[in-house]
């Protein structure tokens, strides 16, 4: 059974639409983006570019540069995280502006 997850903001409808979207195995490649939802109501998710993937199969950990702060960190994403392809993020930003 899937439980709908409401978008944080109306213009951020590209956020996962069902809980099952988040439960799939996480895989990424350099250039993808990591989105981490926030526990604070009304605060937009953190978004960072994945610079490096430390495993051959694309599973975590990832070296991420956070877009808001520019800080780079090695991240082991949790259940509140979603990997977005570079193409998806670029298309969203072209339509809605930078996040």
TrEMBL record:
<dbReference type="InterPro" id="IPR015035">
    <property type="entry name" value="DUF1918"/>
</dbReference>
<protein>
    <submittedName>
        <fullName>DUF1918 domain-containing protein</fullName>
    </submittedName>
</protein>
<feature type="domain" description="DUF1918">
    <location>
        <begin position="26"/>
        <end position="83"/>
    </location>
</feature>
<dbReference type="Pfam" id="PF08940">
    <property type="entry name" value="DUF1918"/>
</dbReference>
């Amino acid at each position: 059974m899937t439980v709908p997850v409401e978008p944080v903001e109306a213009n951020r409808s590209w956020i996962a639409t069902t809980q099952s979207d988040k439960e799939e195995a996480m895989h990424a490649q350099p250039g993808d983006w990591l989105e981490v939802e926030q526990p604070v109501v009304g605060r937009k998710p953190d978004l960072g570019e994945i610079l490096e993937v430390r495993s051959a199969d694309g599973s975590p950990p990832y070296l991420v540069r956070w877009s808001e702060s520019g800080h780079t960190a090695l991240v082991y994403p949790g259940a509140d995280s979603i990997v977005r392809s570079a193409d998806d993020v670029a298309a969203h930003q072209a339509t809605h502006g930078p996040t």
